[in-house]
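Subgroup meeting minutes
Present: P.N., E.W., G.H.
Scribe: E.W.

1. P.N. recapped why we're keeping a running log of single-chain structure predictions: easier to compare across weeks, and new members can see raw inputs and outputs side by side.
2. G.H. added today's entry (758 aa).
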Amino acid sequence: MTDLHRLDVNGMSCGACVASVEHIAMGVSGVTAVNVNLALERAVVTLGRDGSLSEVIEAINRGGFQASQPMDPLERRRQGQDELRRRGQSVGLAILAAATCMVLTMWAPTLGHLGPSGLVSMDGHGAIDADGIRLNHLIALVLSGVVWAWAGAGFHRRAFAALRRGAANMDVLVSLGSSTAYLWSATVIAGAFAGHVLGDGTVFIDGAAFIVAFLLLGDWLEVRARFQATDALHGLMRLRPEEAWKLDAEGVTTTAVPVEALAPGDAIRIRAGEIVPVDGVLLSQRVLMDTSSLTGEAYPVNVKEGEDVHGGSSPVDATIEVRVTVPAGGTLLDRVIGLVEAAQSGKAPIQRLVDRISRVFVPVVIALAVGAALTWSLFGAPVEQSMLVLVSTLVIACPCALGLATPTALVVGTGIGARHGMLVKGIEALEQSTRIDTVVLDKTGTITQGSPRVAHIELIHGDIPQMLGVAAALEEDSTHPIAEAVRWSWSNFDRILPDVGQITVRPGRGIRGETEQGTVAVGNLDLMDDEGYALDQDHRDRLVSRAKTGAGIVLIGQHDQVLGWLELRDHLRTSSKEAIAGMQRAGLDVIMLTGDQEATASHLAEEVGITTVFANVLPDQKGETVRQLQGDGRCVAMVGDGINDAAALATADLGIAMGGGAGIAVDAAQLVLLRDDLMDVRGALDLGRNTMGKIRTNLGWAFGYNVVGIPLAMGLLYPWTGWLLPPTFAAAAMSLSSLSVVANSLTLRWWAPRRYEN
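Output recorded in log:
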């Protein structure tokens, strides 16, 4: 027995922090799994029977992070935005101070000198010249100290906490780099006052300030971008009203009540333009509903009395009344948000590898920086050159980009998918979507609408009302889709149903009953023969030919003869042909899998352009059929909507459920399409490929940046070019590395499902 718990975790700055939090949490007794998402600042902890969440929180807090029970996401976002504004002000002051340092030390005319003169014999050595210590540099040293100690306090505090727990992260690099630059500069100037010059008097005053300022700016822009990455999810959360207008028992007066107080059976009133607070059924006659926030559907949907209305949708043209069926917390919108949050907390296998690399990344960088500085010193380089190499190498390394590469793309991709009615249950679904080469489609409810209607009535004896009346009376209490089609046709006649008694269901054949005039039956040809209803050979031949066109045949018998038959057809979804053609053009092999007869299935497959059909497949055989395809080396996506598709959905490499289908099918699938539109199957695969493409690009950039940047900072090109990377440039490059990863992920916000044309 395990339980999933979410925690808010603050104080993380890079992939090494993610690895540290996971390592700390896994060290607590009873914890079986931990997933930490840097972009969302969230941990998902799986506890066993003897696990304690409070112990996990305490352990993470002892490690120098701030873990807590999750607060309301919208409130947390508001607090985060307030903090972002405050940090923006600090960033502005830090950049202003750093820029002033640069102007004073590089361009401003000398303001005067202090300290002993004659320490150096010529000008041009930074803080010290022949007349003494330049006042410009002393002022800059004070300003730089404010930036280093005050603006950079967060880096130093988090670095100390990391070292105290025996780990190292990005903050350690920043703190070491900026502290080395500043303390070296302060030591050089202090030595000059004492009459000694270290090296040639070179200092990194502006570099120390800009290291902190640039990284603060990078952090601020990064956090700002991460807020944008979660816009889609928080947009869904804003669709949940806090109050609802509850009707009294007479259905006249309304009272404002908290949404949480609504219970199934309550009646509520929603004015045009307001958001429906919970799921229910429509009590009003008819209304146009805006469901774009849930399904991405561009146009309002016509909803009739008795049909479902979902929380998050909105009536367009009238005030409506709704009978509550699901309380707050269990609505479709709540399930959508839950699925998106769960998917965004997932972690790809490649990211787990990155997290392991991040744990050793910082110690390796520190070793490389110290090693490079010592090597240059051993080869006779001036001490200030060794210090420059040390500082630049520490500052340029960027574990933060590695930590953000996967979660930022995942957050944006799943959020934008939800906006278009595509719910991704986990990153595994996105990974599998890139490998799919075969799409298996269920017929009924997937390619077709799943609600057959009477398309033709073949009358042999009697009249149509008589024949339909018999069928409707026998099917009155049945829940079978055929029964619904029969009743729908009978509703066109303003007549009373005949009185039928002793109704008996004949499994696999149909239904029979008794009237005052004798027996009546509705079903297949076998039932007619069993009951002795006469049907001549010409009509039998015609019956066979009609069945070959894909029609479902329902015969009606009375007394000793067949009155005629009904031809039922399940109409294609409007987009099925175009969607299937689009998938085939994209190189996907599209297959139909159905329990229908081969003649019916083949006729429909020919109509939509599918060449491979598996017909007469029982529900328990559908999963085996998918396994056979996988055994042939195919990577299979299964698309279905019914209980009979659940096994195949679970067996497939990628299960895709049409959202209007059975709950067990939705549970078994990894992707859920809220719009019941086959066009979204190709769109969902495209979204997965785009998202995984961004993740790979991010990881490639993050690794490539470090592979190139660190050797440059170590002075790889110096023997040939005489060029070393200044610490200021190193800090700017580090910030840009993280920003490039986040910015690349944010381009997914402009993704939209493609539409295909024949």
